[in-house]
Amino acid sequence: xxxxxxxxxxxxxxxxxxxxxxxxxxxxxxxxxxxxxxxxxxxxxxxxxxxxxxxxxxxxxxxxxxxxxxxxxxxxxxxxxxxxxxxxxxxxxxxxxxxxxxxxxxxxxxxxxxxxxxxxxxxxxxxxxxxxxxxxxxxxxxxxxxxxxxxxxxxxxxxxxxxxxxxxxxxxxxxxxxxxxxxxxxxxxxxxxxxxxxxxxxxx
Amino acid sequence: xxxxxxxxxxxxxxxxxxxxxxxxxxxxxxxxxxxxxxxxxxxxxxxxxxxxxxxxxxxxxxxxxxxxxxxxxxxxxxxxxxxxxxxxxxxxxxxxxxxxxxxxxxxxxxxxxxxxxxxxxxxxxxxxxxxxxxxxxxxxxxxxxxxxxxxxxxxxx
Lengths: 204, 157
Description:
The complex is a heterodimer. By secondary structure, chain A is of the alpha+beta class.
């Protein structure tokens, strides 16, 4: 009873602070089980809002208006609204493993820590008897879009070749590349960002 | 059929049986309509398919165009073929409008239409491989998930 009151109270306070009306959507961003945080984009006829900070929420009161500016939302509020949905979540145990390999600027040369990570990736593939390996290449925004498309493809292919040399079946590897279009860390054009110079590997 | 004929038929029959039983995770599987399966269920939860109401049980296959419904005491958790995970709290209704996971053809799309209730969503490979292809639709908004986890509540008066 106490915890219900607590949740209800924090929800009431939340409503008073940001304003809650009859028909509404509430969208909350959370980190994934690995602790990574992506982004959620909410679009109505009136406009768009991006959530990119975990523990923040946006609301839609009226489909003709843009969604509200992101506001932090308390754990107790989250639990009181979404508790049952959260407890029905499937066990993430069987999910794919995800890795990020980082590259030196304008090359297909891996940074030192990533060279070691590559060994760990091969180990995971063999331990899981993985049937699918997804290799996705990216770059930062230094250079033209066309050039970076090519560079991201080269990076992805470099990792693929390395996996095949390590004994992984080529038919289980799916390669794709996105150039500079899908940064991990959004930047202005021509801004160097080491975290974007990457190949993501998903294993399952 | 005399025993000699049976013996000759046996190896090919065994081979066919083995082929049919090699299931595993569906990827670009045209023969099976299953795109997800129920992993958790509690209270009243049903799947409506082509006008038929099916009681949700662990292991139940989910097909494209299915409607997931939960009662006032119900909840359900499903995992899709690309490891996208979706769970609904009580009094929820969600329709699977589209689901394509075909890595060989580089064809990816997931569109879930939520009419009411609460949901927890964890992006799978579709969101990783084609971030612009994973959407939740509510009566008021379109929600794009880019490789992440989120909660959605849709309240209709």
